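Note to self: keep these together.
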Amino acid sequence: MKRLSLFLVAGLFACSSTNEDNAVTGEEEELVAGACSITDGSTNRRMTSANRAKLDDPFFKLVLAGGSGKKCPLTTKDAIARIEEETKASMKSFVVSERGDQPTNGKTGYRFIGVPTIDGKSDVVFYSMLGSKAGVSQDFLEVMALSTTRNAWLYYALEGGKWTLVGDGSTVVPGEAPKFRCASCHTTGAPLMKELQDSWNNWNSIWFSMPDPGSQEETFKKLFSSKGGAENLEKFFFTSIKAHAKGYVERELAKPSGLKKVLKHAMCELGEPNLVTSHNKHSTRFGKVSASSFMNFPPSILVSQLLKAGSKQGGYASVVNMNLPAMNSLSLNGTSYSKALETIGSKIGGEAGDTMFGLSFPERGFMDNMVVEELVAKGVLDKDLLTDLLMTDFTVPAYSKVRCDLAATAPDKGATAEEVRAAWAANLKTSTLKGAKELAARLEDKADFAKHETAVETFLKACNARNTSEADAYALDIVKLASQRRKEFLEIYEPLVESADLLPSDTLTDTKPHAFRLNATTCKLEAQ
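Structure:
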């Protein structure tokens, strides 16, 4: 496994180290007893007392600030011990591994996420640690901590016995060039759990009990023996991402051009997507895949979670909440799925096969969706206006070029949903973009929600009918669509891919980005 973790991209960007020649004169003498010297990653200088005074996150206060006379922790083991001593509680741990089902494989790497409980909260600090059967790295630790004044996340790293404040999430603007190295993966500045939703592929969870590789190293044994399920970890990420989304929206709406920018989240993917899979674990995933005879899969490969989140996907406020009974019956024939994998030449980690749970594909990211929910909460969007926007190219719920292009027509002024609706419709009158005329008509019709709901239900029913009448052809179409979505994901988010074990590859040449969509009436692949 490359040193490319949940928080930082150390494998692609050189770790900053303290430049002694540029160190602030006398700063070491200014530190109180037990305080940690911190390098500012943006300047490569030691932070001054004035800048340290602006750090109000709980990790800085409990571990780095000093004042207790205790020695600054400069190893992973000591940092864990300090946070547990200060919080008077054992830190919760969670583990993910792309080869976690193969503990005897010498290449199997592990990432542990530590979640301390501070003042009754488990969503304000996250640790990230890398390890293998040989043990957890003691000279590489990453920490994210929520700043209360910024309402955003600060990124710290312990590397080679030195602490660095790598970056400030409040400076991150989705869609713009990363301000610091972490932002190459954390493109919204928020915490990132790539497999956030059920079935938490590669995570220890209620669906997969990760076998113990038998490490004898103290830190590994401590973290692995106390590991929890990803179904509990995701709840902490839900609240932490929502807090960041709230702060981001407030910061952007205070800017002259901010409204247009945040409205783009309703039309386009600006944040990191979420990698989801079927809810059924393969009994054999290398060579000839043995899939479950009945495979449930997340509806987000077919329609946006904002229209209605799947029953197994938590964290949503259901602001649109369409009545879609057909969504409850979505599935694939396992035998047909296995045949489709052979047809496309599916490989994982360079071997014929698939991920632990089948049908891995990217869906719209949780942060993007939480920005939209925040806009609804603020009255900038409402249910009908949001639905009108999402019905643009609705069978392409992620990476729709049509929808993303139309985001350029969003207004830059409007305090209420009605003002935004009117301004957006006016902008579309002169647009020649594909779908502009249809979007304008939807915006002007304030009584079309039932019609949209019927259109989505009709589409999902057609998909279910194909699964019954032509299971092999339907499974192949879905597998090809998943292949295309993965390629669209890799175009933008390749830094998120730690290894060839994360996503399947294949021999298809026609599933290029933005090549196909499913027809809204027949649920068959057609050219975009």
